[in-house]
Structures are given as structure tokens and as C-alpha cells.
């Protein structure tokens, strides 16, 4: 077979070992092109004034164009398209990573100095000394940590049973065409997209009606968070239950097992890893909510572990109020706001780690 | 324990759609009955009506009677759960419970029916059931390992062990070998031959050689066309069905002339 047997392909340079080979760029051509693009764009920008963003953008453009041209000259159109598209998706991925990494770095840089053992274990606030008539600011987030855990904990206790049971109803009991199932599914869809401030206003006005004006309490914040959390729990649990193969349910029914036992002993254990992961993600989703807690639980510098009366401090609200309503020592307020933000991020990371470990522990073993 | 099945003018519907029409059949105890016929002719649907498993599918309902030793499955007030305890079922795809060990899979039917059982009784039941399914020697050293780690054929025999552990009178098998290799198929067919001594067995199969190998009687189901109900065309001794059937359609099907 001679090279003419493949008329559509570019005639390869050099000796051809067999008819299936065609010209290829060297192995690390992408790296070389990237280095060249960096150098060229640096040189171009050096003439008109250097800045790092422009450098990276120009590099990306030169890289894509250069690699495209190079590849279509040496290789063929298909490979050129492949290389360019691969470059585009990689750049998109890096772009998506920028805000994430930048946020994380900023929070860690801002919060790390504030994060001392005292900050975690002391109740913060301003202390007025009547002798010297001086106000000193104590840095501490203990009241906010306790508040966040109480508010989120109660929200979880309310939402997880309701959410999981509702999902079991939707998947196991309701016929998909039934009006009630359709209504619940529709409402869940709507509630998933509900703005969190609306949930906060709902809880606050509800408790104002029940308790009277100034009804700030950790519990009403929990109710607000539950409104946000229940649809997430229902959605994720529903998806997990749907993943459980119908074969398993049928196998269980065919053994003369009741529907209840089938759900409790077969379906839930099979899906439990996914359900727990979903629940943990729902918790980390609401733990950082600021607006509803701000409305429903307000903020305070006092330590308050009673969710049923009085304002309660939480980490996200502490971060907000530290910035918005700083004490006389503005720098210290900012510092503790950053500290609260970092603590919150750490809490969310811990929750996610727990979710992963739990999912690993409960996952069905020995699957094909 | 083994029981006789009497089917009396049974129609099966999916909502308004008539899927199987007018089946009359008597299945003797301690026999193997094979259901053959083209896909979509209602064999599996009809099989499921013998232990009310069709009710799992929304909208499915029947009209007619099925007697198991004189008790009508469809009499008012019959609990499908207690029906299924007497009529076990093995499915086309092996479906051991993924969260359970081999041992727990065998005990699942008993445990989930919330019967208390001493450890020695449970051990005995596991051993007899697995021996009954010809699986004991292969798994006796790893009873605590997950059932889903077994091979396809072993999983299917595990499912049979699980089904016979609840001591049913009748065993329904919906294409139990269609996903298995010839060696595993042979193991299952040998097993069916042994189980016949204690159970009434009904098996759906697409493999006509298998029907001739394992069954005493064969029922041929057919469908006139898409959207038409499936019907029982002929029901006779397996030898008769495969050598001199009385209906032309049966002969066409078993001899391979069928469209």
C-alpha cells in the first residue's frame, strides 16, 4: 500500500512504516506551545505596559491560535480541532477555579490571624470598664459557634425526618400521576428555589404572630432554615431512593415481606450512604445562611444557649455584623468578622468530610 | 409441601389494556411446567399473577380466579403478602440484597418477616437452603461476605436459596437462566430437577431446549399482533408439544418456522 491509498490525509513527511501512520506533533507540544505563548505575550505586553491579567489572557489566546495553526499545518484538521477544544475546556475549568481558590485564600488570609484558641472558646464583645470609662473589645466567637450549632442542629432535627419521610412517600407510596404526588413534587421544586430572605421573613412573622413583637429567637431561625432545608433533603433523598433498583423491591415482595419491612430493611439500607451525603450537603448549604438568621434571630454579643428566647449570635451573622456595625475598635471587629467567616468555612469542610466518611462506611460492599 | 394450581378464565389488564385473555390451566403438584412463547405474549405477566406480583406494577389488575389447593388468590380479603409467602419467585436478573452478606441474604425472607430465630436454627436453615440450591460447597467458607460478590450463576442460585428458605409450596421462575452461561444454566437446570421433588415449579423460558430438558408440561402462549391480548394457545405434556402439537401455531413456533 502506498500513501496514495489514503488520499484524504495529508501526505506524511519522512519514511512511512505503514499506511495507518500520519504526521504527529512531538509529545510535549502543548507544554512547549504554552511556554512560547507565555514568552511571546510577556514580550508584547512589556512594550505596552505589563499586567498579570492581560498577560494570562493574551497567553491563552496566543496558545489556542498557535496550537491550532501548528496542528492543522503538521497534523490534520481533526487533530487541530481536538487540541483547540481541549485547550478551551481546560481554560474554562481554570476560570471556574479562580473565584473558588481566590475566596478560599482570602478567607484563610483574613481569618487565620484571628483564629486563636481564645477566639474559639471566649465570648466576644465590648467590655465597658466603669473605673477607667474605657471600652475594650474582647475577640471571641464562642457565642456564635454555639448559636450556629444550636440553630442548624434544630433545623436539621426538624427537616431530616420530614424530608426523608416525604421522599419515601413520593417514591414508594405515591403514584406518579396522582394529584397529591404531583402537587408535592411541584411545591418542592418551587421551594428549592425560594429566596432565603423570604424564609426568614416567614419565620419571623410567624413567631411575631405567636409570641408577639421582637420575637427574636434561635428557634425561629431554625424554622426559617428548615423551610430552606426540607426541599433539599426531599430532593436528594428522592433521587437516592429512585436509584434503588426495583428488582430489589420485587425480590423482597416475592419473599412475602411487607412493604414497610421492604422499605425499612432493604430500600433504606441500600440508599443510606447517598441519603446521608445529601443530608450533610443540605446542612452545609443552610449553615452559612445569613439573611434569614439575621431577621429571625437577630444578633447579639451575649452568650445565649436558649433557642426559645432572646437574640442569638451565629457565625455568618457575626461576620456580617462585624463588618456592618463595627465596634469602636474597627480593626478588631473586622478581624473577628474574618475569623467567623473562616470558622464557618472550617465547619462546612468538617461536615463534608463527615459526609464522605459516612458514605464510605455505609456504602454497599462488594458491588460488581 | 407442594400444591396444585387451578387457573380459571383469567384475564390480566394493565389499566384498560387487556394483556392476557382467558387462561384456563391446571398445574399438578411436584411437576415442572414451562411457559414458552414470543416476547410480549404475556408469559411473565401471567406468571406474576400466580403470586400477585403483578400488583407491584401500577394499574395492573386481573379478572378471574386462581386456586392454590382450593384457596382463591383473588378472593376478597386475601393478603398478597401471605400469598407470596406460599408462592416464591426467582427473577430473570439475579438480585441479591447488596447490603447483606450471603448468610443474611438466605435468611432475609425469614428475618424480614420479623420471625425470631435462634442462631443454631438460623445456621441450619442457611445450610439446608444453600445445599438445596447446590451452592453450599462453593460458599460455606465465606458466608459473611457480600452476596453481590458472587458470580452471576452463583447469585442466581443464592436467590433460589433465598426463595426456598421461606419454605414456599410453589416456586415461580421468570427466565432464571437467560442471563447465565451454559455451565451455570446446567447447574440451575439440575437444581430444578431436584427441587421438583418438593415444590411445584413454573418456569418461563425463551430457550425451547431448556423447556424440553426440565419440564413435564409446556404451555405455549402467543399473541395475534401488537396491541392484541396474549392467549394460552396450547397446554400439554412437553413431549406432545414438541413432537405432535395439535395447533399449527405451536408447531410453527417450536419448529422455528414462526415469523
Question: Topology, please?
Answer:
The complex is a heterodimer of chains A (368) and B (259).
Chain A lengths: L28 H20 L3 H23 L2 H35 L5 H5 L3 E5 L4 E5 L3 H32 L5 H14 L3 H16 L6 H26 L2 H9 L4 H29 L3 H7 L17 H10 L5 H33 L6
Antiparallel strand pairs in A: 1-2
Chain B lengths: L4 E10 L2 E11 L4 E5 L6 H7 L10 E9 L2 E2 L7 H7 E4 L11 H11 L6 H14 L3 H4 L12 H14 L4 E5 L7 H14 L4 E5 L3 H7 L2 E7 L6 E8 H6 L4 H7 L5
Parallel strand pairs in B: 2-10, 3-8, 3-9, 6-7, 7-8
Antiparallel strand pairs in B: 1-2, 1-4, 4-5, 9-10
Helix pairs in contact in B: 3-6, 4-6, 6-7
Molecular structure report:
The complex is a heterodimer of chains A (368) and B (259). By secondary structure, chain A is mostly helical. Chain A is 70% helix and 3% strand. Chain A contains 13 helices and two strands, in the order ααααββααααααααα. In chain A, a hairpin with a 4-residue loop joins strand 1 and strand 2. In chain A, helix 1 packs across helix 2 and helix 2 packs antiparallel against helix 3. Chain A is flat, with a radius of gyration of 29 Å. Chain B is of the alpha/beta class and 259 residues long. Chain B is built from ten helices and ten strands. In chain B, strands 5-4-1-2-10-9-3-8-7-6 form a ten-stranded mixed sheet, with helices on both faces. In chain B, strand 9 and strand 10 form a beta hairpin. In chain B, helix 4 packs across helix 6. The radius of gyration of chain B is 18 Å and the shape is globular. The mean pLDDT of chain B is 88. At the A-B interface, helix 9 and helix 10 of A face helix 2, helix 3 and helix 6 of B.
Amino acid at each position: 500500500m502506498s500513501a496514495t491509498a489514503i488520499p484524504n490525509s495529508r501526505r506524511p513527511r519522512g519514511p512511512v512504516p505503514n499506511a495507518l501512520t500520519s504526521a504527529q506533533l512531538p509529545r510535549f507540544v502543548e507544554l512547549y506551545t504554552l511556554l512560547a505563548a507565555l514568552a511571546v505575550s510577556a514580550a508584547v505586553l512589556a512594550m505596552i505596559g505589563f499586567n498579570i491579567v492581560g498577560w494570562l489572557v493574551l497567553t491563552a489566546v496566543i496558545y489556542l491560535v498557535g496550537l491550532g495553526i501548528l496542528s492543522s499545518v503538521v497534523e490534520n484538521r481533526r487533530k487541530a480541532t481536538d487540541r483547540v477544544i481541549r485547550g478551551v475546556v481546560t481554560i474554562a475549568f481554570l476560570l471556574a477555579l479562580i473565584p473558588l481558590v481566590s475566596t478560599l485564600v482570602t478567607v484563610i488570609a483574613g481569618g487565620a490571624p484571628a483564629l486563636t484558641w481564645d477566639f474559639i472558646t471566649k465570648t466576644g464583645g465590648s467590655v465597658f470598664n466603669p473605673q477607667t470609662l474605657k471600652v475594650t473589645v474582647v475577640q471571641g466567637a464562642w457565642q456564635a459557634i454555639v448559636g450556629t450549632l444550636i440553630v442548624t442542629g434544630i433545623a436539621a432535627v426538624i427537616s431530616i425526618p420530614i424530608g426523608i419521610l416525604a421522599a419515601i412517600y413520593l417514591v414508594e407510596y405515591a403514584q406518579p400521576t396522582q394529584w397529591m404526588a404531583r402537587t408535592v413534587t411541584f411545591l418542592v421544586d418551587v421551594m428549592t428555589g425560594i429566596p432565603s430572605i423570604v424564609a426568614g421573613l416567614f419565620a419571623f412573622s410567624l413567631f411575631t404572630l405567636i409570641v408577639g413583637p421582637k420575637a427574636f429567637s434561635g428557634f425561629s431561625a431554625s424554622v426559617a432554615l428548615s423551610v430552606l432545608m426540607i426541599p433539599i433533603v426531599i430532593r436528594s433523598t428522592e433521587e437516592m431512593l429512585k436509584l434503588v433498583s426495583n428488582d430489589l423491591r420485587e425480590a423482597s415482595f416475592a419473599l412475602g415481606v411487607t412493604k414497610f419491612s421492604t422499605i425499612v430493611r432493604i430500600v433504606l439500607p441500600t440508599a443510606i450512604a447517598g441519603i446521608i451525603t445529601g443530608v450533610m450537603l443540605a446542612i452545609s448549604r443552610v449553615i452559612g445562611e445569613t439573611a434569614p438568621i439575621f431577621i429571625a434571630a437577630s444578633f447579639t454579643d451575649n452568650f445565649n444557649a436558649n433557642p426559645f428566647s432572646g437574640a442569638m449570635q451565629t457565625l455568618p451573622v457575626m461576620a456580617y455584623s462585624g463588618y456592618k456595625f463595627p465596634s469602636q475598635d474597627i480593626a478588631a471587629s473586622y478581624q473577628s468578622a474574618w475569623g467567623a467567616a473562616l470558622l464557618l468555612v472550617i465547619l462546612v469542610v468538617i461536615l463534608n468530610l463527615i459526609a464522605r466518611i459516612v458514605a464510605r462506611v455505609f456504602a454497599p460492599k462488594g458491588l460488581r | 409441601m407442594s400444591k396444585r394450581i387451578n387457573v380459571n378464565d383469567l384475564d390480566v389488564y394493565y389499566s384498560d389494556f387487556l394483556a392476557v385473555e382467558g387462561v384456563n390451566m391446571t398445574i399438578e403438584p411436584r411437576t415442572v411446567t414451562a411457559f414458552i412463547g414470543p416476547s410480549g405474549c404475556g408469559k411473565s405477566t401471567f406468571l406474576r399473577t400466580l403470586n400477585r406480583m403483578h400488583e407491584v406494577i401500577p394499574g395492573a389488575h386481573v379478572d378471574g380466579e386462581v386456586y392454590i389447593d382450593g384457596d382463591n388468590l383473588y378472593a376478597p380479603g386475601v393478603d398478597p403478602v401471605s400469598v407470596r409467602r406460599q408462592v416464591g419467585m426467582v427473577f430473570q436478573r439475579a438480585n441479591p440484597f447488596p447490603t447483606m452478606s450471603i448468610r443474611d441474604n438466605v435468611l432475609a425472607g425469614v428475618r424480614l418477616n420479623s420471625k425470631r430465630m435462634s442462631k443454631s436454627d438460623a445456621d441450619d436453615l442457611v445450610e439446608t437452603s444453600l445445599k438445596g440450591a447446590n451452592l453450599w460447597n462453593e460458599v460455606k467458607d465465606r458466608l459473611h461476605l457480600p452476596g453481590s460478590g458472587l458470580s452471576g450463576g452463583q447469585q442466581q442460585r443464592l436467590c433460589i436459596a433465598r426463595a426456598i428458605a421461606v419454605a414456599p409450596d410453589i416456586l415461580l421462575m421468570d427466565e432464571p437462566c437467560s442471563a447465565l452461561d451454559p455451565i451455570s444454566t446446567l447447574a440451575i437446570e439440575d437444581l430444578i430437577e431436584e427441587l421438583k421433588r418438593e415444590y411445584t415449579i413454573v418456569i418461563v423460558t425463551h430457550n425451547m431446549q431448556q423447556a424440553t430438558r426440565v419440564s413435564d408440561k409446556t404451555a405455549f402462549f402467543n399473541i395475534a399482533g401488537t396491541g392484541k391480548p396474549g392467549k394460552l394457545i396450547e397446554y400439554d405434556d412437553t413431549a406432545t408439544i414438541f413432537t405432535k402439537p395439535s395447533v399449527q401455531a405451536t408447531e410453527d413456533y417450536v419448529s422455528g418456522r414462526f415469523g
